[in-house]
Specification:
Dihydrofolate Reductase, subunit A, binds ligand LIKH6CAM, globular, 7 helices, DHFR-like_dom_sf, EC 1.1.1.302, binds 1,4-dihydronicotinamide adenine dinucleotide, nine-stranded mixed β-sheet, two-stranded antiparallel sheet, oxidoreductase, 5-amino-6-(5-phosphoribosylamino)uracil reductase activity, riboflavin biosynthesis, alpha/beta
Length: about 240
C-alpha cells in the first residue's frame, strides 16, 4: 500500500529530534529515537496478539519518514511474532537504500525470518535483512540473518541495553536506531534517559480500552524540550527524557 504525501510542516517539526545525517555520532552508542503510536488511554494495541492501527495515514507517512532517517529499527520479539511487520521504508524513491536494518530482540529465539513479511520484502529488493539479538550462539542460523550475541545480565535476566547498542555501532556500523516497540521494550526504555536521545509519540484520537496493551513506565518520567504537532486526527509529541 502506498503512503499519502508527507505533511509539509513535519520535516521542520521533527528536525531537532532526528539523528544528524551529516555529523557522525562521536558517542560509542548510536543516536536512539524511541517512537510509537498510542491511544488516548495509553494503549498501543487492542490487546495481546491484536495488530492495531492507531496512526492516521499522515502520521503513518511520518513513521516512514522517521525510518528513512535511521540506520536501524528495533522491535521486541512480541511485536515481531504478533504483527509480522515489514519494517522497511516506503518514503522516498528507493525502498532498499532508504530502509533501516530491522533489529529483532529475540533472546528466546522464537521468531523466524523464513516466511516473514520482512523476508518477502527482502526477496523483492524492498527491504534489508534483519539483525537478530540473541543471548547465545543460536541453534538454528537462518540464511541472510546476522546475529548479535548479547549476554543476559544474570540478575535481571535481561540484555544490557548499553552493551547492545555499543555492539550495534561497533560490529554493525549502525549509527542511529529507532525503537518502535512493543510495550515491554518501551516501558523499559522510557526510564533510560542515559540512552534515549529523542522521544516521538503519536497519539491517535481513540480509546482502546482496559484490555489493550498499555505503555506506562514503572516510575514517573519527566520530559523536556517538548513540542507538539497537530494533524487531522492525531497529535505528535517530540521531547527529550529529562535527567531528573
Ligand atoms: N502502536 C505502536 O506503535 C506499536 C504497537 N505494538 C504492539 O505491541 C504489542 C507487543 O508488545 P509486547 O508484547 O510488550 O512485546 P515486545 O515487542 O515488547 O517484545 C517483548 C519481548 O522482547 C524481548 N525483550 C524485551 N526486552 C528485553 C530485554 N531487556 N532483554 C531481553 N529480551 C527482551 C523478550 O523476548 C520479550 O518477551 C503488539 O500488540 C504490537 O502490535 C508494537 C510496536 C509499536
Ligand atoms: N506508527 C505506528 N502506528 C500504528 O498505528 C502502529 N500500529 C504502529 N505499529 C508499528 O509498526 C509496525 C508495522 O510496520 P509495517 O507497516 O509492517 O512496516 C508494527 O510492528 C509496529 O512496530 N506504528
Amino acid at each position: 500500500m502506498s503512503l499519502v504525501p508527507l505533511c509539509s510542516d513535519l520535516p521542520q517539526f521533527l528536525q531537532g529530534y532526528l539523528p544528524n545525517a551529516t555529523k557522525k555520532e562521536t558517542s560509542i552508542r548510536p543516536f536512539i529515537t524511541l517512537t510509537y503510536a498510542q491511544s488516548l488511554d495509553a494503549r498501543i494495541s487492542k490487546g495481546p496478539g491484536i495488530r492495531t492501527t492507531i496512526s492516521h495515514p499522515e502520521t503513518k507517512t511520518m513513521t516512514h519518514y522517521l525510518r528513512y532517517h535511521h540506520d536501524g529499527i528495533l522491535i521486541g520479539s512480541g511485536t515481531a511474532l504478533i504483527d509480522d511487520p515489514g519494517l522497511n521504508c516506503k518514503w522516498g524513491r528507493d525502498s532498499l537504500a532508504n530502509s533501516p536494518r530491522p533489529i529483532i530482540l529475540d533472546t528466546k529465539q522464537k521468531w523466524r525470518f523464513g516466511g516473514s513479511k520482512m523476508q518477502e520484502l527482502y526477496n523483492k529488493g524492498l527491504g534489508k535483512p534483519p539483525i537478530v539479538v540473541v543471548a547465545n550462539d543460536p541453534a538454528i542460523k537462518e540464511h541472510h540473518v546476522e546475529y548479535a550475541i548479547c549476554p543476559m545480565d544474570k540478575a535481571t535476566k535481561q540484555i544490557d541495553w548499553e552493551k547492545l547498542f555499543e555492539k550495534l555501532k561497533k560490529d554493525f556500523n549502525i549509527q542511529s536506531v529507532m525503537i518502535e516497540g512493543g510495550a515491554k521494550v518501551v516501558n523499559q526504555l522510557l526510564l533510560r534517559n542515559d540512552i534515549i536521545n529523542s522521544l516521538i509519540i503519536t497519539i491517535g484520537s481513540t480509546f482502546l480500552g482496559r484490555s489493550g496493551t498499555e505503555v506506562s513506565p514503572l516510575q514517573s518520567v519527566n520530559l523536556k524540550g517538548i513540542t507538539w504537532w497537530k494533524g487531522t486526527t492525531d497529535v505528535v509529541m517530540c521531547a527529550k527524557l529529562d535527567n531528573e
